[in-house]
Amino acid sequence: MQVSRSLFDEVMVPNYAPSPIVPVRGEGSRLWDQQGREFIDFAGGIAVNCLGHCHPALVKALTEQANKLWHLSNTMTNEPALMLAKRLVDNTFADKVYFANSGAEANEAALKLVRRVALNNYGPEKTQIIAFKQGFHGRTLFTVSVGGQPAYSDGFGPKPADIDHAEYNNLDSLKALISDKTCAVVLEPLQGEGGIISPTVEFIQGVRALCNQHNALLVFDEVQSGVGRTGDLYAYMGLGVVPDVLTTAKALGGGFPIGAMLTTNDIAKHLVVGTHGSTYGGNPLACAVGLAAFDTVNTPEVLNGVKVREQLFRDGLNAINAKYQVFSEIRGKGLLLGAALSADYAGKSRDFMLAAAEQGLLVLMAGYNVVRFAPSLIIPEADIKAGLERFEAAIAKLVAATAAAKNAG
């Protein structure tokens, strides 16, 4: 059977528009397609492949567990789930863990939890959830409604009610919405899809204070920013603000699907038996791989290495920009970075992504004005250098083509 990109159009629902590249093998920060062409990976499966492709520790954990036990049900627990939950509890603010299969499911659990806590503690009037414009929290109807991008939630009928959106890094906009009817404030401690926007210290501390004032729970969506991505184990640790509920996924499994919601004893007690569940959540395969990924990342060497690599990226991108003036700023933290495009290239992040792929480099978009980088946390420095050289070649070609088109016009 011939397997090619054209088969996608024949057999897959058309909600994606994947690249013509069909990777068949990966190792570390390199990928190879069907034709044997090599790519350097600065995308990381959208911040998922925190240890690159086929990391030996993850391969070992998966193959060993595959020969023991794959799936039970949540009528029973299992050793890998308990071990990973203990590791998460021991290394964060949390006392309790709920496992799911994805970031959206972890967020769905968090949103149901905060509504239930408010109902039990304060009564049926305290239902408002406040999130932020340009936020992203998943694709279920509840999470996509909480996400602050109407293009993702419009057109699917009535949305879950009592959800409002403030402006990120604008405390006054939150003050205008929050009240004693607010059950929770939900935000990313580093906005990803919304353009790689870091919170100011005043903003993030102000959000915490307003939640305390109005007896609202603070939920941090760390699906993208968690598990070493910012150079801290979780982004909240570098902000000096502790949430009441935290969600994590993506890098937690290093490429194997897993998500988790973390919270305290006092909050967790409201999800009594039967209030929420997941068929596959906490399965032994996912948790065994998750444990290996977590333990590999959660070391001073890896976390400090993220900060070293961040500087290499920043220096390299700034050097490129000194030649071509295509970026207005380099944003983000750790290895979740965004190159915001200058006015001359506004709206063209997809062009940069495609031009990079032509040069054998995989990058991402964060909206149409930001090129996003989310590589392996342990990407070799030589691969950073080589990847940035390919990126510069792509930009040189794009700049020349843009200038030629302008002159022709």
TrEMBL record:
Residue positions binding pyridoxal 5'-phosphate: 103-104, 136, 221-224, 279
**MF terms in GO:** identical protein binding; N2-acetyl-L-ornithine:2-oxoglutarate 5-aminotransferase activity; pyridoxal phosphate binding
Q: Where in the cell is it found?
A: Cytoplasm
Gene3D superfamilies to which the protein is assigned, alphabetical: Aspartate Aminotransferase, domain 1, Type I PLP-dependent aspartate aminotransferase-like (Major domain)
Annotated positions of the N6-(pyridoxal phosphate)lysine modification: 250
Named in its record, the pathway it takes part in is: Amino-acid biosynthesis; L-arginine biosynthesis; N(2)-acetyl-L-ornithine from L-glutamate: step 4/4
- Give the matching CDD domains: OAT_like
In short, the EC number is 2.6.1.11
PROSITE patterns, alphabetically?
AA_TRANSFER_CLASS_3 (PS00600)
Instruction: Quote the record's cofactor note.
Output: Binds 1 pyridoxal phosphate per subunit.
Reaction(s) catalysed (UniProt annotation): N(2)-acetyl-L-ornithine + 2-oxoglutarate = N-acetyl-L-glutamate 5-semialdehyde + L-glutamate
Annotated binding of N(2)-acetyl-L-ornithine, by residue:
139, 278
Q: Which residues form a coiled coil?
A: none
One of the protein's GO biological processes? L-arginine biosynthetic process
Judged by the first EC level, this protein's enzyme class is transferase
Keywords assigned: Amino-acid biosynthesis, Aminotransferase, Arginine biosynthesis, Cytoplasm, Pyridoxal phosphate, Transferase
Q: Which cofactor does it need?
A: pyridoxal 5'-phosphate
Pfam families listed in its UniProt record = Aminotran_3
InterPro entries annotated for this entry?
Answer: Ac/SucOrn_transaminase_bac, AcOrn/SuccOrn_fam, Aminotrans_3, Aminotrans_3_PPA_site, Class-III_PLP-dep_AT, PyrdxlP-dep_Trfase, PyrdxlP-dep_Trfase_major, PyrdxlP-dep_Trfase_small
Q: What else is known?
A: May also have succinyldiaminopimelate aminotransferase activity, thus carrying out the corresponding step in lysine biosynthesis.
Q: Which HAMAP family match?
A: ArgD_aminotrans_3
Subunit-structure text: Homodimer.
Instruction: Write the protein's name.
Output: Acetylornithine aminotransferase
